[in-house]
Amino acid sequence: LRPLALEAAARVAPRLRGGRVYTDDVAPVEWLIDSSIVEFAAGDG
Length: 45
Hints:
By secondary structure, the chain is mostly helical. It has a domain at 20-45. The chain has two helices and no strands. The chain has helices spanning 2-11, 28-41. It is elongated. The mean pLDDT is 85.
């Protein structure tokens, strides 16, 4: 695991300037999909 961690650490750089970055867990579409799955599982869909 150490070689992988060292390789990943070498790629870390300052973030890009600009607006908000949408990662997968906070992207609006992710929330829509998650809520659809929960509603279906709860029997409301």
